[in-house]
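W.,

You were right to be curious about this one. When I first looked at the sequence I had no strong expectations either way, so I just let the prediction run and decided to look at it fresh. Below is the sequence, 140 residues in total, followed by the output.
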Amino acid sequence: MLNLLISLLCLLPGQSTNDEVVAILKQKMEASTLCWNKGDLECFMDTYWKSDSLMFIGGQRITYGWENTLESYKVGYPTAKERGKLRFTYKAITRLSDEVYFMVGQYHLEREAGNDTGHFSLVWKWIDNDWVIIADHSSH
């Protein structure tokens, strides 16, 4: 984790290559996967912008805010049976500017409650010396 932090601090927008930023974003996604699979939803949410302006689009609604998004995850995935084991595959990671990236992929949940898969699109932004998700659209 310390190496990731050092990498993040050393790779400021405009000073890093596209490949370096893509690697960091994938590392952050994999770290969040480990948190999910341990059942630590707060840790899973570390990749998200801790702001009331965070936007999560899923199902039939839009949720605003880090705390509200965390609560939605807690309600939707209250136990290991519903959470299962998470993994991601990536379809595209596109640089929109030095400070904004767009990621599209699939999530895969293997779980007792029945496996689930769907697509996601994430907007990543460089804020306060860190890459964070500012918008998440996930669908089945």
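Here's what jumped out at me. The longest strand covers residues 85-97. And, maybe more interesting for your project: Residues 2-139 form a domain with the Nuclear Transport Factor 2; Chain: A, fold (CATH 3.10.450.50).

Coffee later to discuss?

I.
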